[in-house]
Amino acid sequence: MVNPIHLRTLLEVIRHGSFSAAATSLGYTASAVSQQMSALERDTGATLFTRSPRSAIPTDAAIAMSRHASKVLTDIDALLASTARADAGPAHELRLGIFPSLATFALPRLLRMAEWQRLSVSLRLFVGEPAHTIQGLRTGGDLDLALVYQVGQAGLAWPSTLSRQWIGDDDFRVILPASWGIRSGARVTADQLADMPWIMHHPGTADATVIERLFASCNLHPRIAAYCDDFNATLELTAAGLGAALVPELAMISRPAGIVALDVPEIRLARSIFALRMGDADDARVRLFMDQLADILRTQSIGPKHIEQPYASTSDH
């Protein structure tokens, strides 16, 4: 009998390329991961990895097994969720906190997916900025799951009672009004942007501080045309010709006409997206949601190939 936990670990080892990296992702020790893979090899009679001190190269058998493992694990999660619904009635509801740009991009797509509709897991949503949704988890009852972002390493903290899972990185793009005559995708230097008006985050916020430090490191001291923390408003103002801006990819999905995105090698910034929840109890509803979210984010090249690891408990940032 193949242990589903071993299948989840197999996917992580293949994704990360080593036992130690997979162990870090899963919250295990490297020795525990190695033991699980050895047990899986014994159970299946297949050699799954070519091992070296620093890597674990998957064999053809491991790759073939991984293709089926993802579906098997999703089916198991669906079975558990279905059982929970039958046994506990309202347990099929997932109370989700999510920040606006991810909600705008992902949730309409999720709700239209036939795979999600078949699961019959209903969502109760709280759309808000990370600081607010984290409060919903701190109170221990308002939310089951919060999807938040963090720009850099400062400004967003959560208690050690919350478990964290990294979802992916949402890259920022430098955008300009198309009316300025620079072609989309053009590679420019930070110096070439120095005299342009900019739309910036309000001073004093954590995101603004990170961006200001990044710009300063490029010797870029922008002329401020506006302060705005709403990306939809920023996009519209940029399209209208007010100024340049730094906007994440997720917010660019529904951008208006009249905007071009540039390649500025000195300006590389991303916001890391995390899923947070209370404690570390396994929850089939959460795993099912995360599986579907992974499929959606993969279309934007955000997130790992598989998002199926257990949550890793972390301390305050």
Entry summary:
By secondary structure, this protein is α/β, with parallel strands linked by helices. The protein has helices at 4-16, 19-26, 30-44, 60-88, 100-112, 114-119, 130-138, 206-217, 231-239, 249-252, 284-298; strands at residues 49-51, 56-58, 93-98, 122-127, 145-151, 162-177, 197-200, 223-227, 244-248, 259-262, 270-278, 312-313. Strands 3, 4, 5, 6, 7, 8, 9, 10, 11 and 12 form a 10-stranded mixed beta sheet that branches. A two-stranded antiparallel sheet has the order 1-2.
Question: Can you tell me about this structure?
Answer:
This protein is an alpha/beta fold and 317 residues long. The protein is built from 11 helices and 12 strands. The strands form 2 sheets. Strands 3, 4, 5, 6, 7, 8, 9, 10, 11 and 12 form a 10-stranded mixed sheet that branches. Helix 1 packs across helix 4 and helix 4 crosses helix 11. The longest helix has 29 residues. The two termini are 41 Å apart. The C terminus is likely disordered.
Shape: globular
According to DSSP, the number of beta strands is 12
Summarize the main sheet: 10 strands, mixed
The proportion of residues in beta strands is 15-25%
Q: Please identify the oligomeric state.
A: single chain
| Average of the residue pLDDT scores | 84
Beginning-to-end CA distance, first to last residue? 41 Å
Could you spell the SSE succession in H and E letters?
Answer: HHHEEHEHHEHEEEHEHEHEEHE
Helix proportion range: 40-55%
Radius of gyration equals: 22 Å
Sheet/helix structural class: alpha/beta
Number of helices: 11
Q: Which stretches are low in confidence, meaning pLDDT under 50 for 5 or more residues running?
A: 305-317
